[in-house]
Amino acid sequence: MSEAEQLSQPVVDEKLLVRRARDNDYRAYEQLYKLHVGRVFALCVRLCRDRDMAEDLTQEAFVQAWRKLSSFRGDSAFGSWLYRIATNTALSYLRKQKPFLNSLDIDDVPETGYRETHDEQIGLEQAISDLPDGARAVFVLYSLEGYTHDEISKQLGIAQGSSKAQLHRARQLLKRSLGAGINHSGKSSV
Prior knowledge:
CATH superfamily of the largest domain: RNA polymerase sigma factor, region 2, helix turn helix motif
Order of helices and strands: HHHHHHHHH
CATH architecture of the largest domain: Orthogonal Bundle
Number of helices: 9
Structural class: mainly alpha
Largest sheet: none
Low-confidence stretches: 5-9, 99-122, 182-190
Radius of gyration: 19 Å
Number of strands: 0
CATH topology of the largest domain: Rna Polymerase Sigma Factor, Chain: A
Distance between the termini: 29 Å
Mean pLDDT: 76
CATH class of the largest domain: Mainly Alpha
């Protein structure tokens, strides 16, 4: 959407939409859905690495939000509350799919030298998608969604030290992944 199109869009009073949705105004909830579906879907894709499943998880998050709407106190923005529901929905799915918590153990990852340039980026989204589940979850929650290690440790049921270690691991793996497409002349081989 161009800047001119964004400026011509009507300003939406999200608090009013939430109040109307609480009163079973489905059109108001539909507007809230349209406002937030893109970011919720992107979060689910980052966490589960499967676009089809991310669509299902996005819908599930909005269904849960609708059911819990009466418990939304408004202490935070509706979007923040909704993203926490989406995060919990995706993490719950991951835990059920495989021994997710086992993947939170730290593997011995050899350190390699790394020189960062603009030419070496092979796609941050793909690199994040390729991270192991535990490292990806912590990286997304901390670096992209802004959760603290304390909040992450509570959501994932791990120690804060494990959250910090997984973040370090994710960053090291991303550095290696993003640096993999660089040849010795410093130019991208991708």
